[in-house]
Amino acid sequence: MASFTIFLLSLLTITTHATTTSLYLSPKTLFPNYNNMLNSFKIFIYAPPPSTTPTLFTTPQQSHFYTSLLHSPFLTQDPNHAHLFFLPFPSSTSTRSLARHIRNIRINFPFWNRTLGADHFYLSAAGVDSSSDRNVVELKKNSVQISCFPTPSGLFIPHKDITLPPMHSFQLITPSVNDVNGVNVTYLGYMKLTAGQTPSNLIEEISDHPEFIVEYEPVSKKENKKEKYKNSRFCLFVYGSDMTWMVEAMASGCVPVVITDRPIQDLPLMDVVDWSEMAVFVGVNGGVKGLKRVLDGIEKSRYERLVESGVAATQHLVWNAEPQAHDAFHMVVYQLWLRRHTVRYARWVEQ
Ligand SMILES: *[C@@H]1O[C@H](CO)[C@@H](O)[C@H](O)[C@H]1NC(C)=O
Ligand SMILES: *[C@@H]1O[C@H](CO)[C@@H](O)[C@H](O)[C@H]1NC(C)=O
Questions:
Q1: Residue 179: CB within 6 Å of ligand 2?
Q2: pTM, entire model
Q3: E.C. number, please (predicted)?
């Protein structure tokens, strides 16, 4: 197993404070409903397509989700007791093989035809592309897709699909009061880019601005990096680029700022937490001036709330080697649980 997050349970205490109401979309129903899930949720797994490569999944968060599910109490051997059906297949599966696989599922089991796939789900790192094949169309339109965040544009269907939070190993640095109050803050915003990433005009403007700091990975002096992002009020991310350390930033009290040219619909835990309570979303068009205006305009009380909610939300976004209550694995399963009441289509007589 690769790297896993080191996570301190002390964070749990934060969520019980008054701010809870603003972090969750439905704070009253979330935990009772979560407990119902623990007691009742049953998932049936189909066998992967034959002649599949030994590694089904290529990203660590997918593999981890899959392994955790296989070892979880949510599985059932009896499909008649299942709320949802899981179709494992490698992300590299060609559209043709996928179509054949779904056709076999349709012919060999009674479950697909009942809902045309709506009570089925699958993992696909970058999302399944559209196709004219009926089987793939039904998979894409009806089944719940679990992809990795961020998902390429057009390959995610809001309200139906789910993303896996990024997996990144980090050591939790609990933010100090000074950090939160901005006493020791050197920079307004910190941005980390992967080596070789072509900077856009906006990134160049940000690099040139004295209140922002942009560094390229790998950052040579590790200590240096830590200080710089710890001493920044905001951590900047361009939506779609490498956002793997966003959760790490939140955990250490650096408020994520997501720079985007369109509304983001594929945030992890989108129907559990209120992202506007822990991150700031800024358009690209205002340039660095617009960015600075938005960040400067955030009042102290709101900033403190953003930090606190972000730190509190970390527990739901981290992957633990052994899944723990309310962690990323369980919250993704919870989102599946929310999707168990699927539309059951009337039987159509085909022409
Ligand atoms: C599901 O419906 C298709 C026609 O759309 C049919 O060919 C297939 O046999 C059905 N599957 C089962 C298990 O009855
Ligand atoms: C903030 O600055 C003060 C004085 O320079 C220092 O003693 C303190 O350790 C700093 N706090 C942090 C969190 O860096």
A1: yes
A2: 0.86
A3: 2.4.2.41
